[in-house]
Amino acid sequence: MNNAPPISIILPAKNEARGLAEILPRLRKAYQAAEIIVVNDGSTDNTIEVCASHHVKVITHPYSMGNGAAIKSGARAAEGDILVFMDADGQHQPEDIAHLLEKLAEGYDMIVGARTKQSQAGLPRAVANGFYNRLATWMVGQRVQDLTSGFRAVKAEKFREFLYLLPNGFSYPTTITMSFFRAGYTIAYIPISSPKRLGKSHIRLLHDGMRFLLIILKVGTLYSPLKLFLPISLVFFLTGLGYYLYTYLAFGRLTNMSALLFTTSTVIFLIGLVSEQITALLYQRR
């Protein structure tokens, strides 16, 4: 007889004792049959004590390994057929889990809680997230409403297929979303309202700015590298062609700059072509 819980709720936490003290009683009351897992990512506050008082399963990292690493630890330890991921800072509401599960029961493979405009943490973050969403929408040909949301319900078996691709940092939602699209799995979104987080954010805008910029490249290389590299290659080619026409008509010769632009265009295109093959190998069923 299978005694596994129907769902496993996974909360990565680093110094989120305040948020856990508020959210764990609500989770335990609403989902008594669920497996609740808190992944303590090297916290220095009383996270462990708070979890012990609410009788939830705790996985502890000896030092901080990152949000993505905590997600992977929780997914490996979970016994449920459905995994629910949510933040421990109070931004994700336990009451919304029922809506995620209801939508998942319609036959989707993953449901993501899409934050409304009013729920974005400041204008710079909202602008950045909007750019990521539009880029991902163009890449996959489907509307992506919230690429970076960490609140989602997903079928465990399919989520674990991509554990080896997930980074240890904060960009795991981007990676898993693009991986599901690439594999042909179905994704749907439901709107959620996120109140202001409890405690201090671990994301530093200036420090993490370059790292989030790399998400743009990751989005492209995870789904269809040629969709990213081909336009860049065309820009260099057309620039080189325009410069060549100018120098030929004005001076009657091909300059080194035109040759360099043509060469750069060819190299970028070939990199995209090779990346396309590597991406196909990454998604090969193992």
Short description:
It contains ten helices and seven strands. By secondary structure, it is an alpha/beta fold. It is elongated and about 80 Å long.
How does this model look, in words?
The protein has 286 residues and is of the alpha/beta class. Helix content is 52%, strand content 14%. It has helices spanning 17-30, 47-53, 67-77, 97-104, 123-140, 156-160, 172-183, 205-223, 225-251, 256-282; strands spanning 7-13, 35-41, 57-61, 82-85, 110-115, 152-155, 187-192. β2 (35-41), α2 (47-53) and β3 (57-61) form a beta-alpha-beta unit. α8 packs across α9 (225-251).
Q: What's the arrangement of strands in the largest beta sheet? A: 3-2-1-4-6-5-7
Mean pLDDT: 87
Query: What percentage of amino acids are in beta strands?
Result: 5-15%
How far is the first residue's CA from the last residue's CA? 29 Å
Show unreliable segments. none
Number of helical regions: 10
List the helices and strands and how they pair.
Elements: E1 7-13, H1 17-30, E2 35-41, H2 47-53, E3 57-61, H3 67-77, E4 82-85, H4 97-104, E5 110-115, H5 123-140, E6 152-155, H6 156-160, H7 172-183, E7 187-192, H8 205-223, H9 225-251, H10 256-282
Parallel strand pairs: 1-2, 1-4, 2-3, 5-7
Antiparallel strand pairs: 4-6, 5-6
Helix pairs in contact: 1-2, 5-8, 7-8, 8-9, 9-10
